[in-house]
Protein: Low molecular weight phosphotyrosine protein phosphatase
Organism: Vibrio hangzhouensis
Amino acid sequence: MFNKILVVCVGNICRSPIGEYMLAKMLPNKTIASAGIASAKSGLVGKPADKTAIE
């Protein structure tokens, strides 16, 4: 059906990387990636993920 999944959020520092990780664990035979739509403009480049998300 499909072999690639792209998880997208705004900054790519929290939601989409978490989604990428979880999907990669659940679907090991698929290619999973994450991306942000406005990471450079949002001022989030180089920032860590939210503390709650890391926990």
User: Anything to note?
Assistant: The first strand starts at residue 4 and ends at 9. The helical segments are 15-26, 39-42, 51-54.
